[in-house]
């Protein structure tokens, strides 16, 4: 964690104290996370991850270092927790025979009602 000066609330204190927190977590070199979780974490991080696989979380909302540090850790834990969820693979389904029959009968009924709308023939 590194601390930098933050913009925003803080009054005169904002010019003196470095309260913003930059949390850096090296996802690529982390051995505590499985490989698939690391890939999902980098995908979830998006622009917050560097090309080297380092995740950077910045927190500057609060006026104190402790609160910003706690928020940055909470956001990192939340990201890791969401990366641990394995997405379900989509299996394409096929329409049933009954649904196909219903669709075709509805089409033919609609077609016959539209055919009756034309002009009457003089035959």
Shape: elongated
Question: In CATH terms, what is the fold-level topology of the domain at 2-83?
Answer: Double Stranded RNA Binding Domain
* SS field, number of helical segments: 3
The proportion of strand residues reads 5-15%
Low-confidence stretches: none
Indicate the mean pLDDT. 85
* N-to-C span: 91 Å
**Backbone structural class:** alpha+beta
Oligomer kind: single chain
CATH architectural category of the domain at 2-83: 2-Layer Sandwich
The helix/strand order is: EEHEHH
**What is the C-alpha radius of gyration, as a whole number of Å?**
30 Å
- Strand segment tally: 3
Task: Identify the CATH class of the domain at 2-83.
Answer: Alpha Beta
Structural overview:
It is a single chain. With 123 residues, this protein is of the alpha+beta class. It is built from 3 helices and 3 strands; from the N terminus they run E-E-H-E-H-H. The protein has a domain at 2-83: Double Stranded RNA Binding Domain, CATH 3.30.160.20. Strands 1-2-3 form a 3-stranded antiparallel sheet, covered by helices on one side. The model has no long low-confidence stretch (mean pLDDT 85).
Question: How would you briefly describe this protein structure?
Answer:
This protein is α+β, with helices and mostly antiparallel strands and 123 residues long.
